[in-house]
């Protein structure tokens, strides 16, 4: 299996990757094909695929923020069972991020991720791929070290229609497992920058951010 970076929508592997995303994720979570042009060309956004026998069987997108020394896992897709794709992607991603942090003169502080809560959202089949089942993914991410931030979380729909998407937890995997809280300012700054690409944000998102701005710390809870 190969870990290959995608930097252009003209790369034939990107079409395969985008088709895999549409098979697995609900429509409001998938950015339209042509809108990927700029993100893929952005050196700060890292999109990789797992290539097995000329087929894209997995993919992950993430980014590293030098000023905060944190990363964000945008998504991870496992497209087939029995190949160890999840571990393959997680190991290569962490190795890459540790190298980026080291080049920044630091040890990686941690990584954010939005994680579905299957106890609130039960109608996502995720393409029928069992490793993508929300219950399975949640437990795997808990094993990796992710913790749930103590906030009622919503995010703007990637359809950019101003709708609020719920049913997810905003989580963080600290590099030091003893870390049990984050500065609220870090979360506010991160969310504002991360979702700056979407001009149409729901009022529920603005309300959530306003509540965070009034807090000093946010606890990290078991996932």
Quick rundown:
The chain is an alpha+beta fold. The protein has six helices and eleven strands.
Walkthrough of the structure:
The chain has 6 helices and 11 strands. The model has no long low-confidence stretch (mean pLDDT 91). It has helices at residues 12-24, 37-41, 85-103, 134-144, 184-194, 203-213; strands at 2-5, 45-52, 55-65, 70-78, 110-116, 147-149, 155-156, 164-165, 168-174, 181-183, 217-221. It is of the alpha+beta class and 223 residues long. It has a single domain (2-221), classed as Aminopeptidase, CATH 3.40.630. The strands form 2 sheets. A 9-stranded mixed β-sheet has the order 1-2-3-4-5-9-6-11-10, sandwiched between helices. 31% of the residues lie in helices and 27% in strands. 29% of the residues are buried. It is globular, with a radius of gyration of 17 Å.
What is the topology?
Blueprint: E1 2-5, H1 12-24, H2 37-41, E2 45-52, E3 55-65, E4 70-78, H3 85-103, E5 110-116, H4 134-144, E6 147-149, E7 155-156, E8 164-165, E9 168-174, E10 181-183, H5 184-194, H6 203-213, E11 217-221
Parallel strand pairs: 4-5
Antiparallel strand pairs: 1-2, 2-3, 3-4, 5-9, 6-9, 6-11, 7-8, 10-11
